[in-house]
Amino acid sequence: MRTAATPPEVLAALHGFVRKIGKVPVMLQDGSPGFLVNAALAEYFREAEALYREGTPLERIDDVMRERVFPLGPFEVADQAGRRRRRRDVRRDRARRRRHRGRRS
After folding, report:
1. Which of 1, 51, 56, 68 has the most beta carbons within 10 angstroms of its beta carbon?
2. Do residues 82 and 96 both lie within one domain?
3. Same domain, 26 and 46
4. What is the total count of domains within the chain?
């Protein structure tokens, strides 16, 4: 992501590196919501939420997106992310309890 202060030679060097590793550079303007994939996902989730608010069932949105575009629908992605986060939180809490019990001994 570039800003007004990013020197042109830095952009050129980065473009060269990205091409060298076999990727296609894409320049986002300062203020974009993260990298390209994040920007696209943000719009994907916004549109899915708009469909839901208009009355389309969650399952239908996920089904259509899975059938035509992605391996998971937007609400399935959110569910998976929530499960991973919950597992991480549980592990962290268990570790804290173990450390705390060790201090009382």
Report:
1. 51
2. yes
3. no
4. 2
